[in-house]
Amino acid sequence: MPEGAAGVLTSGGSMANLTAIVAAREAADPDGGGAVYLTGFAHHCIDKALRIAGRARAPRRLIVTDERHRMRADDLAAALERDRADGIRPWLIVASAGTVDTGSVDPLPEIAALAAEHGAWLHVDGAYGGLFMLCEEGRAALGGIERADSVALDPHKTLFLPYGTGAVVLREGRKLFDAFSASAAITAINSLRTRMI
After folding, report:
1. pLDDT per residue over 20-49, tens digit each?
2. CA angle 43, 157, 141 (to 5 degrees)
3. What phi and psi, each to the nearest 5 degrees, are found at residue 9?
């Protein structure tokens, strides 16, 4: 990730994915209506995160996978084009860097290029395999992950930590801060304004 990236530790991979989705909502879909793109191999915590983030009813596109259980970039491109033609704004693409079921890594460079072209937020669920970027073989398999807007990681899995922990990293750290920061002073001022009205 470039300078300006930021992250936070969480209690696990599910919370890391939820944190990323909330940040994506605040940065790229604050009013709702944006479509979500993922495969049938996306971890079930993505559905839970969308529900908790208030986006359970967002238009959802299930993207076809290839014979190696990876998202097909051509099918994603077609879904993005269809939605834009129909006036539906692409919001969130969820790619996998090592699925729990098969260990598959989606074609991250192609997906990142499509996300950039269509103005969609690219989130990579790397809870299972993202930290393999620490070794040469992993860097070869995970090329393109560095272009994501957010990445969920799970040191409990890949680094064999003996306790549950997760991490989320955002390319633009300010968006993480903006989504989750609050000021007691601002809260107090808004409370006083409400009482005066």
Report:
1. 999 999 999 999 999 999 999 999 999 999
2. 75
3. -85, 145
